[in-house]
Design brief:
This protein has helices at 13-25, 48-53, 85-92, 123-153, 158-175, 188-197, 221-233, 242-249, 253-263, 269-280, 305-312, 314-318, 328-334, 337-342, and strands at residues 2-6, 34-36, 39-43, 60-62, 65-70, 97-103, 205-210, 236-240, 283-289, 293-300, 320-327, 347-349, 359-365. The chain is of the alpha/beta class and 367 residues long. The chain has a seven-stranded mixed sheet, with helices on both faces. The chain has a three-stranded mixed sheet with strand order 4-10-9. Strands 12-11-13 form a three-stranded antiparallel sheet.
Amino acid sequence: MDAGIVGLPNVGKSTLFNALTAAGALAANYPFATIEPNVGVVPIPDPRLERIRGHIESQKILPAALRLVDIAGIVRGASQGEGLGNKFLSHIREVDAILHVVRCFEKAPGGEDVTHVDGSVDPIRDIETIETELILADLQTVDNGIPKAERAARGKDREAIARLEVLKQLAPMLNEGKPARLLELTNPELQRAMKSLGLITAKPVLYVMNVDEDDLEGTGPLASRVREHAASEGMESVAVCAKIESELSDLEGEEKSEMLEAMGLDEPALAKLARAAYTLLGLQSYYTAGPKEIRAWPVPIGSKAPQAAGVIHTDFERGFIRVEVYSVDDLDKHGSEKAIRDAGKMRTEGKEYVMRDADVCHFLFNV
């Protein structure tokens, strides 16, 4: 699963991306780092992994990971090719969710002036600037798609008819400046048609409020406006001071703990951001645990056991027989897998089992 970071120039987008990927690179036993200049892999902080290792000895821990893309080129006119418009469009269409970084500080932490592209700081205006470019790009897709869908629908193909209906509902909505994600569809055929369009504004959004050192919780007036905007769309928001997070990402061990304590933080804000992005994507984690590794595996909420097994390897899904499963809480309570079995808490589930967050699994398969 991929998330793309978007934002106007000078809002701290690249600082945040670099901090996230640098923090990931410091995580032990996992090749987190920047893959390409604008792509990185970020670990999802998960205290349950250490809880498992407290009962099952293992050589290493591997958290779930999120692929992060730093989307370049969003300025006014980007949908028409201004700046790096075409590049941003191709990158942003490929991600599953959007992290929209919004400037919520007047001066940069440290007091230096950072010129805003529009000459003043107004987070809602900034949000609307980027949203307008994304909506215009989607409107172009919809307008171009309607004539094609009309021709295809003449053949009475159900998928083509559903696609046309969705396009006709989207056109006026986008023309009014509303994102595609606000279109409510209950019909499964229409939902599938909507998904097939790959619209940018249909993607879920996490608003990342880049705050200064005096407002780490994001309760100041600028951040509060962003929270209200996010809530009005049914989206989430999280406060981060990109400069502090950048400094923290360069530290390890005691030095990092001392800086967190000095700032009054229990963990880097990036940890909250990574988890929020994971939730935004509709993911949950299950675990496998053994002497070589304890690993978190991401699966969409609602996945059944064979699909979860397929995340490890396609053969596991193809030859799925059953899964032996217990929860992390069961492990904490009983202390070992043997004790869980003896207490009758080790469950055997079949192909229709719907995975639960924090399941620990042993898959049985035959290919």
